[in-house]
Amino acid sequence: MSHPVLAAKSRVAVISIFASAGMAVAKFVVGIAIGSLALISEALHSSVDLVATVITWLVVRVSDRPADEAHHYGHGKLESLSALGVIAMLYVLAGGILVESWSRLRDGAPPPTISAIPFIVLLVDIAVNFWRARALHRTARDTKSQALAADALHFASDVFGSIAVITGLALSGLGYAWGDAAAAIGVAVVISLLGLRLARSTVETLLDRAPVGVSVKAMAAIRAVPGVVDVERLRARMVGPTHFIDAIVQVPRTFRSTASRRSSARRRRRLPGRSAMPI
Fold first, then answer.
1. Is 242 helix (H, G, I), strand (E, B) or coil?
2. Strand 230-239 relative to strand 242-250: parallel, antiparallel, unpaired?
3. pLDDT at 123
4. Residues 6+ away with beta carbon under 8 Å from 171
5. Are 157 and 41 within 8 A, CB to CB?
6. How far is CA 64 from CA 143, 233, 252, in A?
């Protein structure tokens, strides 16, 4: 992959690292101070996003290495594997939030202390995450990076999670003691749904599902090559941002490519007096 593309992927990943760290610390400190499970849960979600972003930053530096003797299709599948690891962390977090939320609802834990500070922090968090999600989604789309696409989904989920926390804190402020725990459950549900969406596309890539529309385009391009009569079989797979096409084509017996003519010429030189069969 070209250096400008790699630089773009690395740049947005590094920016996301610092943004994730700052917002995670802010939400965690405020959540502990006011006793809000929903805000602490969202802070932990951001912490997982921070770990995911660091992994992404490391993976994109390796996944763009060219093919070698041991990896004929390059190293792009590392992005899919890293995405699966992040999905697993998200589901572990969602499970922990659900257990703690149910415990608080059952035991009747006291509501958090309401002030303007958590609302200000959450509004800033929404603005930052919305910007990061758009930037990462745009770069992931341009570079076909699953790792960056995973990060974009995480930050989009942070936006919805922060909205859920604001709703829960508002309910608590209005006298509904269950509002904070219910908001934490909402955060867990958002994490689970977006993780499911990401898992589907990642598993499809790891199972080498043919990318949508690629086979048709490849078939048309191959049939447009002079001398190609028909395409017997075509298989497509995606590794990282690269599409690999494996095709068996029919050509006339009299058709010779440049490589065939060179091969025939070499055989004629080696075996004088004998004619070479067309390839």
1. strand
2. antiparallel
3. 92
4. 178, 179, 180, 182, 183
5. no
6. 11, 29, 39
Neighbours of 114 (CB within 10 A): 16
Average pLDDT over residues 262-270: 37
User: What's the token pair of residue 120?
Assistant: 């200000």
Q: Give the pair of three-digit tokens for residue 189.
A: 């549900």
- The rounded distance, in Å, linking the Cα atoms of 179 and 185 is 10
Q: How far is CA 143 from the centre of its chain?
A: 11
With contact defined as beta carbons under 8 Å apart, do 111 and 172 qualify? yes
Is the pLDDT at 60 greater than 50? The verdict is: yes
- Predicted local distance difference test score (pLDDT) of residue 120: 92
- Report pLDDT for 268: 36
Contacts 24+ apart (CB under 8 A), 177-180: 177/108, 177/110, 177/111, 178/105, 179/111, 180/36, 180/37, 180/38, 180/104, 180/111, 180/112
pLDDT average, residue stretch 180-202: 84
pTM: 0.63
Is residue 220 within 8 A of residue 152, CB to CB? The reply is: no
Buried b (16+ CB within 10 A) or exposed e, 126-157: bebbeebbebbbebbeebbbbbbbbbbbbbbb
CA distance 197 to 134: 17
What does the block give as tokens for 150? 């995973």
Give pLDDT, residue 158.
76
Read off φ and ψ for residue 238, nearest 5 degrees: -120, 130
